[in-house]
Amino acid sequence: MQFIHFLRVRYSELDPQGVVFNANYLMYCDDALETWFRTTIPEGLEAHDLDLMLKKAVLEWLSPARLGDTLEIGVTILRWGNSSFDVKFKVDGIFNAVITYVCVQHLTNAPQRFPDFLREKLS
């Protein structure tokens, strides 16, 4: 299942060249994933004593996003592991990213298996 998140580029996200500063692309991915999870799991992961931690991020930049652009971020789960999973983020013509997250227990950060009933909601 693919989730689509729309985000408008704001002035504060630009660098001196007038394009989106590179670190903000990861912030966009985080925002898209959080919105998808909040939409799909309205009670939040905390209600299930879970949280997520980023393990690895690979981002391929294709061309700059600029002030006022509306980005259509496609979000898809590529792989489920025991406690980790890979998420693909794609904005046509702008960037692609694959981020590996680890599911952890809320507050203790101990790795946890992502529950099957939540996997089904997101797959």
What is the architecture at the second tier of CATH? Answer: Roll
- Return the CATH class: Alpha Beta
**CATH-assigned fold name:** Thiol Ester Dehydrase, Chain A
Tally of helical runs: 2
Describe this structure in words.
The chain has about 120 residues and is of the alpha+beta class. The chain has one domain (about 1-115): Hotdog Thioesterase (Thiol Ester Dehydrase, Chain A), CATH 3.10.129.10. Helix content is about 20%, strand content about 40%. It contains two helices and five strands, in the order βαββββα. The chain has helices at about 25-40, 115-120; strands spanning about 1-10, 50-60, 70-80, 85-90, 95-105. A five-stranded antiparallel β-sheet has the order 1-3-4-5-2, with helices on one face. A hairpin with a 3-residue loop joins strand 4 and strand 5. The radius of gyration is 15 Å and the shape is elongated. The relative contact order is 0.24. The mean pLDDT is about 95.
Question: What are the SSEs and their pairings?
Answer:
Elements: E1 2-8, H1 23-40, E2 50-61, E3 70-80, E4 84-91, E5 95-105, H2 116-122
Antiparallel strand pairs: 1-3, 2-5, 3-4, 4-5
Relevant terms:
Thiol Ester Dehydrase, Chain A, 5-stranded antiparallel sheet, alpha+beta, 123 residues, elongated
What would a concise description of this structure say?
The chain is an alpha+beta fold. It has a single domain, classed as Hotdog Thioesterase (Thiol Ester Dehydrase, Chain A, Roll).
